[in-house]
Structures are given as structure tokens and as C-alpha cells.
């Protein structure tokens, strides 16, 4: 069911989509004022996991599941949402496509002919044609099995549309189970088919736990956030041979205070600015401790780390760490021009203030982006994540 709030017929072209459980909230973005305002809500068939917009047509593809990081679930699908009605708002379009497991990430190739959906349990990937009318179709059968490593977490397509990287996070040792190594599984890509070129796993993938990657828009540089190591890596890639270098060219901490690392401190989403001058990484902290018979946030870095990219070498150098004023910024997004960055603090937790314990709510935190790539806080909107976390958000142009 669609609901409408405070509709202004003179609509801007960019909107913020925010997924909590099955509820997709759509906010209008005023990029000049760096502010957002709730416009619509749309109930999806299951919990929102991730979404991606068509490169040319007014469609958003949303991967859903009743599973979670701790439960596999038994209902999984991807739906197409049309964005072409400025009065009615977003609406369902085409058929619901069933999926084999909980989808953890969805992306489209650069010309939006295929959607690539990653699954972590079991680690796998499916490829879905995007039909001429914009609707997504059932998965095609690959020519050969696609190796996705251990715990696939993301898949991304290069700006040239010829290279696909599947990010396999691996797992830390737990109990009697040893560490599962991580890797970057690299493929050449053409017409919806993948051919493996190289598996990048420095030191056999041990001590290498990648979560997300992003390509530089114009240079052959791949930036990788390592969840299990709190580091940012830059790899060179060879477009002619569609491979990635076996070891990173540069490595640096994602943290402002790396010597004060706390429990459950992990980087997450990574985005290169559209102009290629800066790269942003979300740091997430959610460790807890018992205080006065209440479980409270133990502290840590919940921020956006801003790195300037050396235009000659590609080396990322930290220039700013900006608090997101909340807990676990699981996802964040830049608008098309790169003038606005919005971070989604995904959970509510109790925290210790100067005199009392209070709830730190989940929220959307809006920043202006300066010409040098640094961020300036402008607005925060608290949201109710008491039943489900704010699992995904993105800025979508209509």
C-alpha cells in the first residue's frame, strides 16, 4: 500500500530511499538546502536487503528476504519499482522474481542489461536479464559455475562494463572453527556471462576480510574496505587483461584512532566521489557493556572517513573523520553530483551520557560535500528501528 505525506507538486529530481524491515520510506531531497522531507511509504513483500537503480529508465530493483544476518529465512525475491509518476509516487511494476536464498547485495551492469545478485549463505551469484520494458526476469543459467569464494558480500561492475568483482569476506575464527580466508573473485564480463580471470587473496586470504569495493570512475584503481581488519586497500587493475593486481598498492587504517580499536569495530560501505578526488568509508561500532544493570554502547568510531586520492598514484590519504551522530552507519550514499552525502545509522542503542543513560536512535544524517570533498553536517532525522534495523538507504534520481 502507498501512503503519501506532505506532497509538493513542484518536486525535486532526487529522493532518499530508506528501508526498515518491509517499509520503504521515500524522502524528497533538496540538494541546495541539504535537507530531506518524507513524501511516501511503500510496503514491500519482505524485508528490504539492498536496491539498485536502472542507469537510464525510471526503475529501482529491490532485493528482499524474511531472513537476516542471523537467520536464513525462507522467502526471498526481487521486485521492480517504477519511479515515473510524480503524483502517485513509486509503485510496483512487473512480476516478483523469486530468489534461491537471502540476497545480500544487488547491482546492475553499466548499461542495465543484467542485474547481479550476491548471496552469502550459500555463497553464490545469480544473473537476471533486465527486459526491454524495464522488468527484471528470472536468472539465466551460466555457461560454467561461478566461484564466489567464502561469504560473498557484494558484487560490482567496472566503469568499462568488462570486469566484475565478487567480494568474499571470509570469516574470523570462532570456537574450534579456524579462519575462513577472504578474496576478491575477478571475472571478465560480456553479455551476462562471467569468465574467471584471477582470485585475489593476499597471503592465501588469511588476514584479508574484504566487505565492499568501489572502482575509481576514470583510473584503473579499485578501493576495498576490509571489515575484519579495519583497513582500506587500493589495488591496481589491468583493463586489457581484466585482472586485478595480486597485492594492494596501498594500505591504511580506516580509523581515526586505530590504537583504540574496540569490540565490534568494523568498516563497511565504500564510495568513490563522482569526480574521483576522494573516497569515503563508513566505520561502524556496536560493542556493548553492562552499566548499572543496563546494556549500553561501549563506544567506538561511528563515522565517515574521508580520504583524498593522489591523482598520480591513487594512494588514499585521510583528511577527515566525521561523526554520523548515531550507531552503525551500515550504508551511505552520495547524490549524482556529489554535493550531498547521507549516512544511515542503522540501529538504536542505549548510550551513557554525562549524567544518565539514554537511547541513541537510528537516523538519517545529511552532510554537504565541500569542493575539497570534506563533509559538513546539516540535518539529522531520527527513525524508528525498534523492530528492524535501517538496513539500506540510497539516493535515487527520478
Describe the protein's architecture and organization.
With 398 residues, the protein is mainly β. It is built from no helices and 33 strands. β10 and β11 form a beta hairpin. The chain is globular and about 60 Å long.
Short synopsis of the structure:
The chain is mainly β and 398 residues long.
From the alpha-carbon coordinates, what is the Rg to the nearest angstrom? 20 Å
Count of beta strands: 33
Structural category is mainly beta
CATH architecture of the domain at 264-398: 7 Propeller
Approximate shape = globular
The overall pLDDT, averaged over residues, is 94
The CATH class name of the domain at 264-398 reads Mainly Beta
Name the CATH homologous superfamily of the domain at 264-398: YVTN repeat-like/Quinoprotein amine dehydrogenase
**Low-confidence residue ranges:** 1-12
Strand arrangement in the largest pleated sheet: 1-4-3-2-33
The major pleated sheet works out as:
5 strands, antiparallel
Residues in β-strands, percent: over 45%
Number of helices: 0
CATH topology of the domain at 264-398: Methylamine Dehydrogenase, Chain H
Amino acid at each position: 500500500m502507498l501512503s503519501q505525506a506532505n506532497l509538493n507538486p513542484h518536486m525535486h529530481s532526487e529522493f532518499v530511499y530508506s528501508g526498515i524491515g518491509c517499509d520503504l520510506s521515500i524522502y524528497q531531497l533538496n540538494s541546495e538546502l541539504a535537507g530531506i522531507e518524507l513524501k511516501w511509504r511503500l510496503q514491500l513483500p519482505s524485508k528490504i536487503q539492498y536496491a539498485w537503480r536502472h542507469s537510464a529508465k525510471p526503475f529501482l530493483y529491490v532485493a528482499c528476504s524474511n531472513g537476516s544476518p542471523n537467520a536464513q529465512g525462507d522467502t526471498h525475491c526481487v521486485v521492480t519499482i517504477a519511479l515515473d509518476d510524480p503524483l502517485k509516487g513509486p509503485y510496483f511494476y512487473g512480476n516478483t522474481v523469486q530468489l534461491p536464498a537471502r540476497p545480500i547485495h544487488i547491482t546492475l551492469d553499466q548499461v542495465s542489461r543484467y542485474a547481479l545478485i550476491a548471496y552469502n549463505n550459500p555463497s553464490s551469484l545469480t544473473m537476471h536479464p533486465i527486459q526491454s520494458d524495464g522488468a527484471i526476469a528470472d536468472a539465466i543459467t551460466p555457461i560454467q559455475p561461478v566461484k564466489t569464494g567464502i561469504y560473498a558480500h557484494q558484487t560490482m561492475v567496472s566503469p568499462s562494463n568488462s570486469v566484475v568483482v565478487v567480494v568474499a569476506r571470509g570469516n574470523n575464527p570462532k570456537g574450534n572453527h579456524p579462519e575462513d580466508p577472504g578474496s576478491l573473485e575477478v571475472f571478465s564480463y560480456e553479455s551476462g556471462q562471467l569468465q574467471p580471470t584471477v582470485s585475489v587473496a593476499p597471503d592465501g586470504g588469511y588476514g584479508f576480510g574484504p566487505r565492499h569495493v568501489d572502482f575509481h570512475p576514470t583510473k584503473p584503481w579499485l578501493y576495498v574496505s576490509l571489515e575484519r581488519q579495519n583497513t582500506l586497500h587500493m589495488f591496481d587493475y589491468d583493463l586489457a587483461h581484466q585482472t586485478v593486481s595480486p597485492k594492494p598498492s596501498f594500505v591504511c587504517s580506516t580509523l581515526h584512532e586505530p590504537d583504540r580499536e574496540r569490540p565490534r569495530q568494523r568498516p563497511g560501505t565504500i564510495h568513490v566521489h563522482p569526480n574521483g578526488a576522494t573516497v569515503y568509508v563508513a566505520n561502524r561500532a556496536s560493542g556493548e557493556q553492562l552499566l548499572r544493570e543496563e546494556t549500553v554502547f561501549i563506544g567506538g568510531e561511528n563515522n565517515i572517513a574521508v580520504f583524498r586520492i593522489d591523482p598520480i598514484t591513487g594512494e588514499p590519504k585521510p583528511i577527515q573523520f566525521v561523526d554520523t551522530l548515531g550507531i552503525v552507519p551500515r550504508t551511505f550514499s552520495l547524490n549524482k553530483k556529489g554535493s550531498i552525502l547521507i549516512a544511515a545509522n542503522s540501529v538504536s542503542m542505549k548510550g551513557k551520557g554525562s549524567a544518565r543513560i539514554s537511547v541513541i536512535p537510528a537516523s538519517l544524517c545529511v552532510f554537504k560535500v565541500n569542493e575539497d570533498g570534506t563533509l559538513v553536517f546539516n540535518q539529522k532525522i531520527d527513525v524508528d528501528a525498534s523492530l528492524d534495523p535501517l538496513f539500506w538507504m540510497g539516493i535515487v534520481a527520478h
